[in-house]
Amino acid sequence: MIYIYNCYGGTHSSILAVAYHLKMLDENREPTKDEILGLPNFNKLVYGNRGELFYYGCDEDKNKVYVIGRGRSKVLIPGLYNLATMLHKQNLLDEKIIFSNVSPTVPLPMTFGGLFSRWLKIDFIGVPLLVMGAKQAYKNIIKLVYHTKKAGKKADSEVIILDNKEFGKK
């Protein structure tokens, strides 16, 4: 199975999801600032990385885990879904693919942190906001990761898109 977590930039919430999926972060406690900032590609990707798949490793069940940043595109994930479906139909792909949208978990501090840090290059404002947002969102991201893994194991379809709107602000 292949898991592809996606969000706007692919460098904040999706990285946290991958970190919990691959057990890089302890899910029994709030992550520290150093743990958050030490994650691979956390707050490192730029505009030009949108649409690029980044591989982060295999989970305990040998499933591959990736991240992709969508930007504002409404067609990237459906396009990848259609490509994967076509490859399955032609027997060129035999692994189930799960696209999981992490964006609904993003709290306001993370949104503004990304804006200040990635777009405006004002890290002394952006990075503390990103850390604050990561700490606010961690429980919700863990729930999303569990939901994603469960959906992948239960699904009959070869390719699935999870919009995960139920993990948004209530």
Task: Supply database-style keywords.
single chain, 170 residues, alpha/beta, globular
What does this protein look like?
Helix 1 packs across helix 5 and helix 4 (108-119) crosses helix 5 (123-154). The N and C termini lie far apart (31 Å). A hairpin with a 5-residue loop joins strand 2 (54-58) and strand 3. The protein has 5 helices and 5 strands. The protein has one domain (2-104, 142-167). The protein has 170 residues and is α/β, with parallel strands linked by helices. A 5-stranded mixed β-sheet has the order 2-3-1-4-5, sandwiched between helices.
* Helix/strand order: EHHEEHEHHE
Determine the number of helices (DSSP H or I, runs of at least 4 residues): 5
Distance between the termini: 31 Å
Strand element count:
5
Classify the beta-strand content into a percent band.
15-25%
State the secondary-structure class: alpha/beta
The low-confidence runs, each spanning 5 or more residues with pLDDT under 50, are none
Mean pLDDT: 96
For the largest sheet, list the strands in their spatial order: 2-3-1-4-5
What sort of overall outline do the alpha carbons produce when their principal axes are compared?
A: globular
Main beta-sheet annotation: 5 strands, mixed
Radius of gyration: 15 Å
Number of domains: 1
Helix content: 40-55%
Pfam family, one: DUF3189
InterPro entries: DUF3189
In terms of topology, how is this protein built?
Layout (H helix, E strand, L loop, with lengths): L1 E6 L5 H9 L11 H5 L16 E5 L5 E6 L6 H14 L7 E5 L6 H12 L3 H32 L4 E4 L8
Parallel strand pairs: 1-3, 1-4, 4-5
Antiparallel strand pairs: 2-3
